[in-house]
């Protein structure tokens, strides 16, 4: 599932392509929206809210979409061939005179009044990349269930919006905390929202996400030339490979019911406080 920085970047691309232009073509290919035609309406803006996308139109309407695991929005020039997948996977087509945005395999697609957006995103915690970011509120929500494992609390979008499995694993490592540590036992918990904000802000404009000193060149270059692709992340995706800090083999385990989507990576030496009752492998 895309992380908040990926969705933020997608919202910006969609906005750059569509905002300020009226739709010349609209095709919403889900049964409940089959008769909806937004042709002629100007696209006002596209915003992200955590992992949700909100495409706002004149007349007070919002098209709400969520990518989940397999969804995607692709942007094409007028004569460009669509390559995002077979036609039967298309769920939405929004075309202007200059660009066409095509939504593939979108598991969530709703049309609602812009004034009613809270109905689909109002449950979310403060958005790490949004104007409503409030670190104190995010911390309060995280600590409201002090016995909950840290990794699970981070993935709960009601606490803070935008963290996915990659950042969950990386944040736990950077905090030297086990993903199974009760969040109320985290030393200096105020570091958590600050660090999460820092990581997503640093990566929202990068094509390749990185949380280590080796994954991205610092200014004045500010790009990935000379970077180490194999060292962009501390633990995520590094099962059985040596920890970049101590050399211990990175381990994995399932932490949530959606195990195939939420495999947790951690270093047992740098993050040694995993409760004995936790999963074993």
UniProtKB/TrEMBL annotation:
This is DNA-(apurinic or apyrimidinic site) lyase. Its EC number is 4.2.99.18. The keyword Zinc-finger applies. It comes from Streptomyces mooreae. InterPro entries: DNA_glyclase_Znf_dom_DNA_BS, FPG_cat, FPG_N, H2TH_FPG, Nei2_N, Ribosomal_uS13-like_H2TH, Znf_DNA_glyclase/AP_lyase. Residues 2-121 form the Formamidopyrimidine-DNA glycosylase catalytic domain. PANTHER family: ENDONUCLEASE 8 (PTHR42697). Keywords: DNA damage, DNA repair, DNA-binding, Glycosidase, Hydrolase, Lyase, Metal-binding, Multifunctional enzyme, Zinc, Zinc-finger. It comes from the Bacteria. Residues 206-228 are annotated as: Disordered. Residues 234-272 form the FPG-type domain. Pfam families: Fapy_DNA_glyco. CDD domains: AcNei2_N. It catalyses: 2'-deoxyribonucleotide-(2'-deoxyribose 5'-phosphate)-2'-deoxyribonucleotide-DNA = a 3'-end 2'-deoxyribonucleotide-(2,3-dehydro-2,3-deoxyribose 5'-phosphate)-DNA + a 5'-end 5'-phospho-2'-deoxyribonucleoside-DNA + H(+). Belongs to the FPG family.
């Amino acid at each position: 599932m895309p992380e908040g920085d990926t969705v933020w970047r997608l919202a910006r691309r969609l906005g750059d392509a569509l905002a300020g232009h009226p739709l010349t073509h609209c095709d919403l290919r889900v049964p409940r929206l089959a008769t909806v035609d937004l042709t002629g309406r100007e696209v006002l803006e596209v915003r992200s809210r955590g992992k949700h996308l909100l495409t706002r139109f004149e007349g007070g309407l919002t098209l709400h979409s969520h990518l989940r695991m397999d969804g995607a929005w692709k942007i094409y020039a007028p004569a460009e061939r669509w390559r995002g997948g077979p036609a039967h996977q298309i769920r939405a087509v929004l075309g202007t005179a200059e660009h066409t945005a095509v939504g593939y395999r979108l598991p969530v697609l709703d049309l609602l009044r812009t004034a009613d957006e809270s109905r689909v995103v109002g449950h979310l915690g403060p958005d790490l990349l949004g104007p409503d970011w409030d670190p104190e509120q995010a911390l309060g929500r995280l600590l409201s269930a002090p016995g909950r494992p840290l990794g699970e609390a981070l993935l709960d979008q009601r606490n803070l919006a935008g963290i996915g499995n990659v950042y969950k694993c990386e944040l736990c490592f950077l905090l030297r905390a086990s993903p199974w540590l009760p969040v109320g036992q985290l030393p200096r918990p105020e570091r958590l929202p600050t660090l999460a904000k820092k990581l997503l802000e640093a990566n929202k404009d990068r094509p390749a996400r990185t949380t280590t000193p080796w994954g991205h060149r610092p200014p004045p270059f500010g790009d990935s030339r000379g970077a180490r692709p194999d060292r962009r992340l501390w633990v995520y995706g590094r099962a059985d490979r040596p920890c970049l800090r101590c050399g211990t083999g990175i381990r994995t385990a399932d932490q949530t019911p959606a195990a195939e989507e939420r495999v947790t990576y951690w270093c047992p030496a740098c993050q040694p406080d995993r409760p004995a009752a936790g999963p074993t492998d």
